[in-house]
């Protein structure tokens, strides 16, 4: 009989935790009771980071626009379509989060992948630090790295192209 009533008690506990999470404006809460462990999180913290981080990225396009007139006219025209091609290219690996991209596991260590490196699906190609957590970013397909679109220790946005794997 206790097992039959346990799911209801568990559901009530989860609802109470979620209510506490909202009332106290917490991002995460974890509770262990008997053989039950419940962790409730909400993603509003990531959205707040995006809102704060976006203005710091706004000057970057202006820097590229300022650099374009110094290049020959033919190459400046080739720059704009390349970004459009990246979004439709199935080989483009995009950032799953806002953070800082690192091409190697630690300063002074070899990079995970460089141009021409053959990678297999699931192999780490870079890491993104988000909220003091290092997140390994795996290759979404097997192939050869043809372009690396970010610099080491550079800020990245959600959905930003990082690497092209052909």
TrEMBL record:
Keyword hit for Mitochondrion: no
GO MF annotation list: acetyl-CoA carboxylase activity
Keywords recorded for this protein, A-Z: Biotin, Fatty acid biosynthesis, Fatty acid metabolism, Lipid biosynthesis, Lipid metabolism
One Pfam family here: Biotin_lipoyl
GO cellular component term of the entry, any: acetyl-CoA carboxylase complex
Keyword check for Acyltransferase: no
Region ranges (Disordered): 73-92
BP-aspect Gene Ontology terms: fatty acid biosynthetic process
SUPFAM superfamilies: Single hybrid motif
Pathway membership, UniProt: Lipid metabolism; fatty acid biosynthesis
UniProt domain Lipoyl-binding: residue ranges: 90-166
InterPro entries found in the cross-reference section: AcCoA_biotinCC, Biotin_BS, Biotin_Carboxyl_Carrier/Decarb, Biotin_lipoyl, Single_hybrid_motif
Taxonomy, superkingdom: Bacteria
NCBIfam families: BCCP (TIGR00531)
Role according to the record: This protein is a component of the acetyl coenzyme A carboxylase complex; first, biotin carboxylase catalyzes the carboxylation of the carrier protein and then the transcarboxylase transfers the carboxyl group to form malonyl-CoA.
UniProt protein name: Biotin carboxyl carrier protein of acetyl-CoA carboxylase
Protein's organism: Devosia insulae DS-56
């Amino acid at each position: 009989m206790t097992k039959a009533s346990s799911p209801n008690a568990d559901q009530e506990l989860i609802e109470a935790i979620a209510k506490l999470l909202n009332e106290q404006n917490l991002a995460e809460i974890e509770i262990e009771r008997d053989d039950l462990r419940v962790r409730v999180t909400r993603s509003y913290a990531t959205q707040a980071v995006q809102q704060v981080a976006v203005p710091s990225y706004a000057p970057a396009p202006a820097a590229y626009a300022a650099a374009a007139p110094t290049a020959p006219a033919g190459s400046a025209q080739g720059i704009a379509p390349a970004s459009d091609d990246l979004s439709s290219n199935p080989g483009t690996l995009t950032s799953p989060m806002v953070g800082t991209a690192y091409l190697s596991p630690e300063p002074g260590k070899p990079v995970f992948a460089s141009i021409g490196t053959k990678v297999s699906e699931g192999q780490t190609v870079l890491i993104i630090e988000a909220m003091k957590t290092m997140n390994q970013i795996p290759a979404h397909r097997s192939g050869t790295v043809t372009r690396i679109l970010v610099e080491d220790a550079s800020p990245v946005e959600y959905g930003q192209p990082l690497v092209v794997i052909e």
